[in-house]
Amino acid sequence: MQGKIVSFGEIMLRLSAGAATIAESDAFDACYGGTEANVLAAMAAFGHETKYLTALPDNALGEACRKHLEHFGIDTSDVIVRGDLLGLYFLESGDGSRGANVIYYRKFSEVARLDEDAFDYDKVFADAALFHISGISFALSESARRLSFRLVKEAKRRGIPVSFDFNYRAKLWTTEAAGKVFREVMRYADIALASHLDLGAFLDTDEAGFFARYPECGHLVLRDRRILAPDRHAVTVAVLNGDGKIFRSTEYVFPVKEKIGGGDAFDAAMLHALLTGQDEEAAIAFAVSAFALKHTLKGDTFTLGADDVLRYQTVLETVK
User: What is the spatial distance between Cα 41 and Cα 115, in angstroms, rounded to a whole number?
Assistant: First the structure.
């Protein structure tokens, strides 16, 4: 496939608690992560050219983060370098009875302070095949929200398809505020990545009513997780297209060693499959395999190739 995959978002320093809780920890494991950056890294591993739009601080931490992105083959030539602050978050993973906990330090990051004239739009969208964004970018700040909308509209004005993952974060904004924004974003989305719960919570619709409300959207991808045990989850996927066809997976069971980054690997694999002309059933199988495989790998980022994903399909179990 010709053209770059372009995405905008915030990459942060992740500090994972060494003990059961943040309060008990006196040491933290560090890595970089952010949903859009993770999607681009995985798509680069699948063979796509990728470009990341973000802001990094003008210091050694920002330079380290830029090198991290470039290590995965992501084009950082349009990354804005300025200021002092890189967003970060503290993570405690939780267990079966106690959910994960996150503390954000991102309110005044350089990304959150960008305005809608931050980028040269002709330059960043030159040779673009897809623009990908998530709901997190719209939640960072008012100025980041304006910029996110501007990017979506500039992509559409140039005939570039837009993929949108709802990716709601309750610690960043309310369901009501997110729903108002998501309903507007969906006017421009060609591929929507969500869950059945998201449709009701943010769009006040369901499978049956989705395309009547958003007829310009080409694909609706719905991924639903079920927790069977702390280290054993299940997932089902449905892909609906604008022609009225629905493709559903069986329920797949997979082991869980790492909870973060699975959704990003799923997005990258689904987008790769659709952009390279795979049919919906093949796209579902490939995306589910990447999703499950990422849960066996530490860190935020999925960087295995398409052959690794295809091999893992053979070991996935279905719910009996």
Answer: 25
